């Protein structure tokens, strides 16, 4: 399948550069090393991955890079860290309680995110916070296994589960 470069928003080479830069930065951060061997191998591996992802898939379609989007990504990262901490404390409450009083179930939530990458980021954000797991995605609908279901209303469940992330992800991914 050949991609139409004009429909990608940016030329594939610009997508390649931004993805390569991001992956290289993540490699350096994960390795905590500025040794030339580590940085060089990370840059090469990142370039190969960026090439594959930008040339062979359309996942980067429609993504625009701007300082505003970067700013909202930083804000999203902070919100995600707070929600992760909150979910871990809540999970600790369940673990150390003398009697576990939970109401597990699967709820349906609807997202307003338009791009597949935005919906994927939302699904990963939900799955990475303890107590919830996305088990299926169908268009703009996510089915979430929730450890302690407090409502079966899709709008209320969306507000509780996806609400903290969705606004920021909308500004980052569209």
Explain how this protein is built:
The chain is mostly helical and 174 residues long. The chain contains 6 helices and 3 strands; from the N terminus they run H-H-H-E-H-E-E-H-H. The chain has helices at residues 12-31, 36-56, 67-96, 116-128, 154-161, 163-173; strands at 105-110, 132-138, 141-146. A 3-stranded antiparallel β-sheet has the order 1-3-2. Strand 2 (132-138) and strand 3 (141-146) form a beta hairpin. Helix 4 (116-128) runs antiparallel to helix 6. The protein starts with 11 loop residues before the first helix and ends with a helix. Residues 1-9 have low confidence and may be disordered.
Biggest beta-sheet profile: 3 strands, antiparallel
Stretches where pLDDT is under 50 for at least 5 consecutive residues are: 1-9
Q: What kind of oligomer do you see?
A: single chain
The tally of beta strands, per DSSP, is 3
- Could you estimate the helical fraction of the residues in percent? 55-70%
Distance between the termini: 25 Å
Instruction: Tell me the series of helices and strands, N- to C-terminal.
Output: HHHEHEEHH
**Gross morphology:** globular
Mean pLDDT: 83
- Please, how many helices? 6
Tell me the fraction of residues in β-strands, as a range.
5-15%
Radius of gyration: 19 Å
| Spatial order of strands in the largest sheet | 1-3-2
Decide which structural class fits the backbone. Answer: mainly alpha
């Amino acid at each position: 399948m050949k991609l139409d470069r004009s429909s990608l928003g940016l030329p594939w080479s610009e997508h390649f550069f931004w993805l390569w830069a991001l992956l290289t930065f993540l490699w350096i951060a994960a390795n905590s090393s500025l040794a030339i061997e580590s940085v060089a191998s990370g840059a090469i591996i990142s370039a190969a991955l960026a090439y594959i992802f930008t040339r062979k898939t359309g996942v980067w379609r429609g993504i625009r890079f701007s300082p505003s989007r970067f700013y909202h990504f930083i804000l999203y990262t902070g919100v995600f860290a707070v929600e992760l901490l909150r979910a871990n404390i809540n999970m600790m409450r369940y673990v150390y309680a003398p009697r576990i009083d939970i109401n597990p179930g699967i709820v349906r939530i609807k997202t307003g995110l338009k791009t597949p990458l935005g919906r994927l980021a939302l699904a990963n954000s939900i799955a990475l916070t303890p107590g919830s797991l996305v088990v299926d995605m169908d268009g703009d609908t996510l089915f979430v296994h929730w450890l302690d279901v407090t409502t079966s209303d899709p709008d209320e469940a969306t507000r509780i589960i996806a609400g903290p992330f969705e606004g920021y992800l909308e500004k980052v991914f569209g």
